[in-house]
Design brief:
This protein has about 350 residues and is of the alpha+beta class. It contains ten helices and ten strands.
């Protein structure tokens, strides 16, 4: 399966209702490519090789030349000079920022924990309205310039997609239903944390938006998703209204989007926001550490639902900080705040 930053419900709305026939056609093409990529293969649980102590990124940027072929012509390799192509150089920089975050915050060596080469392809397709992780590399479209800008722009888009790779190499959460929503949420959580770390923002200063700057001028919205207020990121006649719930009372039962993985991820997203802001300071240090250790600890089931993940984070917080600590209490209150009952308490 492929993990895309723009959810299908946005593209379906454009394909159906946009006034501009070119936008409708482009959205249909993006959806068709998305479906083909999902059908191409399913990500297998990938065993990481042994860890290395030489924590140096190994980046390669390819240019698809507006074709739909990967990885494209190599235009920049690790240590090479800037190309002058804004998309290629942004992709290179954001791979580096993501690598640096996981090394600095959690002592992780690249996506697989063992120095995996980081590959990105830019200029994929004809104004392709998405970005995705395909199990091996990052891929960016240029956006149509009417609804979406270039997908290399926001750092958290790169962070989001590369975190799908980390999930692949660790818990390998299934991409359906609540496990799939957790998969998406993990990518939003760490996409936001990477941006906060890069900007030097504490939890109270962060915008908690995913894809801020990705919506083109004239679109009524601020981002693809809001972790602070799920359901408020956009409300535009061409894109529809942000459908994310913030609480289990509004959980969306649907067969579309692999059981609503991009929709119901708003619930665990908001739980993380509540935990991180309650604890304050740098969100990657406490709440982020709890989520990271839970994801990578080797005990989380691939089909974990919200309750199982909540219980696992509570157990992790108790182990890291003490069962009666402020950190453990904040994690418990966060899940209670979004209506998730834990299977166990840590």
């Amino acid at each position: 399966m492929r993990c895309h930053i723009v959810p299908p419900h946005m593209l379906e709305r454009i394909a159906r209702d946009a006034d501009d026939p070119a936008l409708r056609a482009r959205a249909r093409r993006t959806l068709a490519l998305t479906s083909a990529q999902f059908a191409e293969r399913k990500l297998a649980a990938a065993g990481a090789p042994g860890p290395s102590e030489d924590f140096v990124p190994d980046r390669t940027i390819g240019d698809a030349g507006h074709r739909e072929e990967l990885p494209g012509r190599t235009v920049r390799s690790e240590g090479g000079p800037a190309t002058g192509d804004r998309a290629a150089d942004q992709a290179y920089d954001w791979l580096g920022a993501t690598f640096d975050f996981f090394e600095a915050a959690y002592r992780r060596n690249s996506i697989d924990g063992a120095g995996l080469r980081m590959v990105s392809t830019v200029h994929y397709g004809d104004d392709y309205d998405n970005a995705f992780w395909n199990g091996e590399q990052m891929v960016y479209g240029d956006g149509d310039g009417v609804l979406f800008t270039g997908f290399t722009g926001p750092l958290d888009v790169t962070g989001h997609e590369l975190t799908h790779g980390i999930t692949q190499y660790t818990a390998n959460l299934e991409y359906y239903g609540q496990a799939g929503a957790l998969n998406e949420s993990m990518s939003d959580v760490f996409g936001s944390l990477i941006k906060q770390w890069h900007l030097g923002q504490t939890a109270d200063r962060a915008d908690w938006l995913i894809g801020q700057g990705l919506l083109a001028e004239g679109v009524n919205g601020v981002a693809l998703r809001s972790m602070e207020e799920p359901g408020t990121a956009y409300d535009d006649p061409r894109l529809g209204k942000d459908p994310q719930p913030a609480h289990m009372d509004h959980y969306v039962e649907t067969y579309r989007d692999n059981g609503g993985v991009h929709i119901n991820s708003g619930i665990p997203n908001h739980a993380f926001y509540l935990a991180a802001t309650a604890l304050g300071g740098n969100a990657w240090e406490k709440a982020g550490r709890v989520w990271y250790d839970t994801l990578t600890g080797g005990t989380l089931a691939a089909d974990a639902d919200f309750a199982a993940f909540a219980a696992a984070t509570a157990a992790t917080a108790g182990r890291l900080f003490g069962a009666g600590s402020a950190e453990a209490k904040a994690v418990n209150r966060a899940w209670t705040g979004v209506g998730v009952s834990m299977e166990a308490n840590g």
